[in-house]
Design a protein that fits this description.
This protein has a two-stranded parallel ribbon with strand order 1-2. The longest helix is centred in the first third of the chain and has 21 residues. The protein is mostly helical. 64% of the residues lie in helices and 3% in strands.
């Protein structure tokens, strides 16, 4: 019911978000096949890329404020509908925010119609070099991507 109440009023945003999901997953799997689908660094990349792509696509048809609101709501809802362990949820929500924040950071310098996927792919790969291992729920790594250690 909550999913329908979010997607029905925003059918275009919903379609664009689905497209962003498929693209981010595909790119992450190609670049980081061993860690994109678990809690490793590839997963951190995938979540940040996913939210960046949602922002990019939704901003092409609406305002950045509306895109940001929808992106936050849909990515948060994803975590609620597909629950993980608390540390995994914290990691995913944090990396989603990294993607949204990065988009908003670039926005003043680039007209939203001219954003391209490569802006985010290249920058997030660079951010992976400074990614931090999340070990506790009270860890706060600010603007760094976070991932869980392999066990």
């Amino acid at each position: 019911m909550r999913l329908l109440s979010l997607v029905l009023p925003h059918p275009l945003f919903s379609l664009l978000s689905f497209h962003a999901t498929v693209q981010a997953f595909t790119i992450a799997q190609k670049k980081f096949p061993k860690t994109a689908s678990n809690n490793g660094i590839g997963n951190a990349f995938r979540h940040a890329l996913w939210s960046s792509f949602i922002m990019m696509y939704c901003c092409k048809v609406s305002s950045p404020e509306k895109a940001l609101d929808f992106c936050k709501r849909i990515t948060d809802l994803h975590e609620e509908l597909f629950p993980n362990k608390p540390l995994e949820t914290k990691m995913d929500l944090h990396n989603n925010k990294i993607g949204m924040d990065y988009f908003m950071e670039l926005l003043p310098g680039i007209h939203r119609q001219f954003f391209e996927k490569s802006f985010f792919i290249d920058a997030l790969v660079k951010k992976m070099k400074d990614a931090k291992v999340l070990k506790n729920l009270d860890d706060d790594f600010g603007g760094h991507l976070v991932y869980l250690e392999d066990k």
